[in-house]
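Operator note (shift B, R.M.): manual run for NADH dehydrogenase [ubiquinone] 1 beta subcomplex subunit 7 requested after the automated queue skipped it. Running by hand, logging everything below so the morning shift can see what happened. Input copied straight from the record, untouched. If output looks odd, do not overwrite the archive copy; leave it for review.
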Amino acid sequence: MYPLLVKFDVFRKQPARKKSASNYIYRNVQNDDIMGNAYARAIKPDVMPGPDCVPTFDPMLGFESRKERVMIATVEEMESAKLPLEDRDYCAHKLLKYRACRADTFPFVYKCHHEKHDYLTCEYEDYVLRMKEFERERRLRERQKQIEKQGA
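Run finished. Output pasted below as returned.
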């Protein structure tokens, strides 16, 4: 069976209405429905962790030594810089450096490209780490379910 292709408007994120324009893409609707987290949580709610779930397993399970992540920027620094809540993560100290550099070299903000690169790299690495933790939690839940199924 061939996947269903639907034309989507990139900017509006909805099905396209016009037939010819440069801002349309074709999306594979069949794979988007199957590969989504909502679909997986509906099929396996006991295995798939939710977006706000707390880890249920020991963080040292399977590791000999593992460092705990520590916030470098303090709450007072983030409040004084008026960082929005969505930016108060493990990369907040790099964002503060980037914003300070932009303020110091204002008309020439291109001079802060190193700070911007450091911040974006930190955000990407944080994202990858959170994905790995999510996948670890899901696999450990599946493993626990298989062990309980074999034991019963």
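Quick read of the result: Helices lie at 29-35, 37-43, 75-80, 92-104, 113-151. Residues 1-16, 18-34 have pLDDT under 50 and may be disordered.
Leaving this for review. - R.M.
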